[in-house]
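Q: A reviewer asked whether we had any structural model of the full assembly, not just the individual parts. We don't, so I'm hoping you can provide one. Inputs are below.
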Amino acid sequence: MSPDQIRQIIFRLLKRIAPESEPSELAPDENIRRALDIDSFDALNFFIQLHDELGVTIPESDYGQLNTLEEIVHYLSARPV
Amino acid sequence: MAEFRMPSLGSDMLEGTLLEWRVKPGDRVRRRDVIAVVDTDKAAIEIEVFEDGIVEVLLVQPGQKIPVGTVMAVIRTEGAGIPEAGTAGAVLPERPPVEAVPERLMAGEQVPPPAAPAPLQPSASAAAERIKASPYARRLATEHSVDLRNLEGTGPQGSICAADVQRALETAAQLPPEEAPGVSLAGLPPGVAEERRAPAPPVAEKPAAADAMRRAIAAAVTRSNREIPHYYLQTRIDMSRTLRWLEAENLKRSIKERLLPVVPLIKAVASALQDVPELNGYWIDDRHQPQEAVNIGFAISLRQGGLIAPAILGADLMSMDDLMEALRDLITRARTGRLRSSEMTDATITVTNLGDLGVETVYGVIYPPQVALVGFGKTTEQPWAENGMLGVRPVLTATLAADHRATDGRRGAQFLDALNRHLQEPSKL
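A: Here is a predicted structure for the entire assembly that you could use as a starting point for your response.
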């Protein structure tokens, strides 16, 4: 899956969690949780939905390195989807 | 006959709008059935009925906004042993039991009571010696700061019924605060107080939902800070053991079954309340009323602003997985769907977790008539001295805001100590 496709999926999932936001306007290096006011419950939901969409299981220990759009896209691109 | 009234779904609720009826006249209803959906300033709530019976008549139309206590329907109660509202008020439970007693327990003969029976009730005789009032009237009075001693009862044997309290509230609304002894105007909806004195101010027809919620929260916290003498205690807790345990647990689980760090915290609060039950309950009628059921109100922030603290009912009886499931369900329904009335009214303590952000210490405002609030900040790595050695540990600051009328600092200290101990043995939680 191309980084662009991954980005589109991320935008769609974030929009579901934060309907009033415009995820596509996020800067690549912006902290997503802070920018969209996402708490730990919604963050877990986001990772669950990523898993449902992409079949990628992200270990809890990796959550810490997945704060920005760039980081998440990079992380997912590096994994076979 | 029993009157089904607009319930008060928390001390900050003054009125509600009927969204829909789930029943029609002639329908048979059972205790705890959802019979209506009501929109409060905070959320749409599914309203449960407290009697078994048959719906006689519905008195309110969907879309109508009515004050708490307004009769919405009449339920024809039936059979022997079913108490009727207004005639046996003193023995009617003030709140519904948290969990229905499982059938097998009811069938058994010598089975001990389940661990989460109905909340403790003031004994009928004790209540009668003081002031005769229906539980609903008491509740209403407490929530609007009305002193029952100043009221004249028109119910059976001169007992005070909800209508008496309602009348007092209406009278109070017509008087300046000084002339209404025992009745606090601040507890009234701003609209009511103002409209009775002067023409309504030219404000927007319908305040935005966010404004309404803000006002509801304002009313609750104002009352809390006015009436509750808070004391605060805090303690730093070494979270290494709990976090290690959690990490190992989550490794074993699929992503959908993973536990959030707040789950062991809630569980530890429930366990610590077993050790110090005084913090679990209410201050009502000038009396400390600890409750047996542990219903942990969990503060949930809403995206549109504001917050709501519905209860995880029977949290002390749940495993970590149950708790995670309950939390997921509660947060999802709080944010998107519907909460049930018992979840809005039955919390016996509140937990607020601001650890998602950088906040280290939470000094909470108690949600009346509860007597305690437990706050959690962010777990951060901090220097930690132990056995003469200095190390770095993940440290969490837990705070307790407690009602000094109900407990003293010593009890509060015991609670935080117990909380710490439980978090040092997460596998036993």
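A: Points you may want to mention in the reply: Confidence is low (pLDDT under 50) at residues 80-129, 176-206 of chain B. The two ends of chain B are 46 Å apart (CA to CA).
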